[in-house]
Amino acid sequence: PALTTVNRTDFIIADGATINAPLLASVNESTLNITPGRTFNAPNIANIDRTRVLVSGGSSYSLPLVTSYNSVYYWGYLGDYEMFTADGAGSSLSLANMTTLTSITNTSNTDDIIRFDRINGTINLNSLATINNNTNGNSYTQFNIAANQTQSLPNLTTGTRLYFTMAAGSSVSLPQLVTAPGWLNFELATN
Predict the structure, then answer these.
(1) In the list 11, 55, 169, 179, which could disulfide-bond 148, CB 3.0-4.6 Å?
(2) What does the pLDDT look like over 18-28, one tens digit per residue?
(3) Spatial CA neighbour of 77 closest among 135, 127, 5, 29
(4) 128-138 burial, b if ≥16 CB within 10 A, otherwise e?
């Protein structure tokens, strides 16, 4: 229970088990898998830099103290990996107070992709105002939106190098976006 910081940790929780970490405030370069029948109680997490958060099977998880996310040359997940997932009906990930997301690669040969996957679940990014991806490397932020789903980014005003992959019937709401340096790409379903 005295644990405050973890680095490079995969939390593997057995069915029916619970991890209680009431003082845990910083989870870096790690993976949190949130699934039904497994409980991860860590209400004070404020830093999740370079960490993957994967919610599935109808589970819900909220990180209300997280206000920013930084992915700088991520240690084990370079390339096309999901960083945040809500997979399955009823699955919900809330990053409702995160205002800034930053992805920087150290070289032009390395991909650093922050990927949000919505597969019939929801990801709350209602406060996200700025997405920074360096324009001299290969970093970008990708949103994969499943069929008939909507991803809302109601407060996003600046987004550098954004990529939206949209299945049939999906949509994205960007009512405040005024600046998109680098590029803004929409890959639309053919049907």
Answers:
(1) 169
(2) 999 999 999 99
(3) 29
(4) bbbbbbbeebb
The answer to whether 153 and 127 have CB atoms below 8 angstroms apart is no
CA 7 to chain centre: 18
CB atoms near residue 22 (< 10 Å): 11
Cα–Cα nearest to 123, from 98, 91, 170, 159: 91
At 143-179, the pLDDT tens digits run: 999 999 999 999 999 999 899 999 999 999 999 999 9
Share of the chain above pLDDT 70, in %: 87
CA dihedral for 41, 77, 111, 54, sign (positive or negative) = negative
pLDDT in tens, 56-79: 999 999 999 999 998 865 444 444
CA nearest neighbour of 24 among 50, 6, 38: 6
Judge contact between 110 and 137, C-beta under 8 A: yes
Closest to 14 (Cα-Cα) out of 35, 29, 28: 35
R_g over Cα of the chain: 16
